[in-house]
Write a structure and sequence with these properties.
It is a single chain. The chain starts with 7 loop residues before the first strand and ends with a helix. Strand 1, helix 1 and strand 2 form a beta-alpha-beta unit. Helix content is 38%, strand content 16%. With 200 residues, it is α/β, with parallel strands linked by helices. The chain has a six-stranded parallel β-sheet, sandwiched between helices. The chain is globular and about 60 Å long. The longest helix is centred in the first third of the chain and has 17 residues. The chain has eight helices and six strands; from the N terminus they run βαβααβαβαβαβαα.
Length: 200
């Protein structure tokens, strides 16, 4: 099973200015989060951010925040508890007019885009906010892809314990490069060179 850019959304959890200095391998993790967001923008994958208690922990870095369609300020550790699910799966609009009363062969084809149920997620702290958000997304029947090299906790042990638990719960563990190249699928993709430049 490969990721499909047209069915994906990216969620970036709590890369906040007062939190990041305490994170294991923080510069690498933040750089990978930025790469993911830039690749997502190039490939028209929606990007969402979250911030835990931003009045105390600060906002996400401005360059990362600018790549997000919206950023959810939250107090719950799970962003799903504060409405992230509604952003990822907006309610379907009712058909306009009386199209339902027409025979099938006279109805216009639906232009409703496919639901984007593959959630690529990365962030901090892996064993708290990311873990709880991802587990709730799995419960809500999203496919969850955790980008391991764009995730961190204060300690490796906590981060790795979260990865083990997420894999056991059904999440796919991936890396930044895996995501980018699966979204591209081919060296002939119009954005291949632009995405490749982010990785080099």
């Amino acid at each position: 099973m490969l990721l499909d850019a047209e069915l994906s959304q990216l969620v970036l959890v709590d890369y906040q200015t007062r939190l990041m200095p305490a994170m294991f391998e923080a510069p690498l993790v933040l750089a990978n989060a930025l790469r993911l967001a830039q690749a997502a923008k190039l490939l028209q994958v929606p990007v969402w951010g979250t911030e835990q208690n931003p009045s105390k922990l600060g906002e996400n870095p401005p360059d990362l925040r600018a790549l997000c369609q919206r950023t959810l300020a939250k107090m719950q550790f799970s962003a799903v508890e504060e409405g992230l699910g509604e952003w990822l799966r907006p309610p379907l609009k009712a058909p306009a007019g009386n199209a339902r009363s027409l025979p099938k062969h006279l109805q216009k084809p639906s232009n409703t885009p496919a639901e984007r149920l593959s959630i690529v997620i990365a962030g901090c702290e892996t064993h708290v906010c990311l873990l709880q958000t991802a587990l709730h997304l799995l419960e809500d029947e999203f496919e969850v892809w955790v980008v391991t090299d764009a995730c961190s906790s204060r300690t490796e042990r906590n981060r790795d314990a979260a990865f083990d638990r997420l894999a056991g719960a059904g999440a796919e563990l991936v890396t930044t490069e895996m995501v980018c190249f699966e979204w591209l699928r081919s060296a002939e993709h119009a954005q291949f060179k632009a995405v490749q430049a982010l990785i080099k």
